[in-house]
Amino acid sequence: MKFLNIRDLRLKTPSVLKSVENGEKIVITNHGKPQAILLHLTEDEIEDLVYQQPEFMSQIEESRKEYKVKGGVSLAEARKRLGL
Description:
The chain has helices at residues 6-11, 13-21, 43-52, 54-70, 75-82, and strands spanning 2-5, 26-30, 33-38. By secondary structure, the protein is α+β, with helices and mostly antiparallel strands.
């Protein structure tokens, strides 16, 4: 398992995501303290995770409601904002 701070994640997002895609688990830290973990998930695993964690479903529903009210951004704009 690899540890990576937020700044390095921001600067190296494409290579970090490639590592995760290849099976590496990465702990994201903020001021040296663990904040999140990145790990590869398949579509089936995402479904299982959502169904096992009711709070995910409520967050998805909230996001859908917000999208209907405020709209969203194109994939191109999202990539631009993320520096991809």
